[in-house]
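User: For a reading group we're discussing how well predicted structures match intuition. Take DNA-binding NarL/FixJ family response regulator. Before you show the prediction, I'll give you the sequence so everyone sees exactly what went in.
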Amino acid sequence: MSSPATKATTRVLVVDDDPLVRSALGLMLGGQADLEVVGEAADGHEGVSLARNLRPDVVLMDIRMPRLDGLAATRELHTRPDPPRVIVLTTFDADEYVVEALAAGADGFLLKDTPPPEIVAAIRKVVDDEPMLSPSVTRTLIRRLRDEPEETANAAATRAAEAEARLALLTDRERDVALAVGKGLSNAEIARSLHLSVPTVKAHVSRLFDKLQVTNRVQIAICVHDAGLS
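Assistant: Thanks. Here is the predicted 3D structure of DNA-binding NarL/FixJ family response regulator, as structure tokens, for the group to look at:
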């Protein structure tokens, strides 16, 4: 009888300029059988370099760091083929940091006082292509972007036209999945509502990333909103 397959270990890189935070995260994650901390970096430059050499699955990224901050480091990581998932982990919960992190390509945003079990769960979720933000946070972000005072009517019309053109590239089923992502639904919830399997939903979401040229689910939601479909 063959032995059961062993679940792959998720490789994690911790990037934070505070050695105590790095140590605490290392100890916390090191106690999980399915997670492995493969490296630690004290700033964005070092983090990008280590990510290139160590090829982690997930990077826990601080925002405020010397030499290269976490937002710039996240953007640089996403210029490379097959970038790691990035979870921004910070003490700052200001709206602009959330928006900038997601625009840079981050897959999630957590505060450093998030309970350890939730940080562990977040890492597992992003690896599994699950949403890292609750529907309420997604709606808050979309509302903030919608209400930007500096955006003119012409700019809004341009955004809408661009979003509609991108969504026009989708199949009917992909469009259904995009609309569900726009509502903040998880893969399991989308599967139930559209009568699909979870692996099929994950495949559709992966294609949405490529077709819509986005890097996370909130960006899909923003595209849906800009097209006037949410």
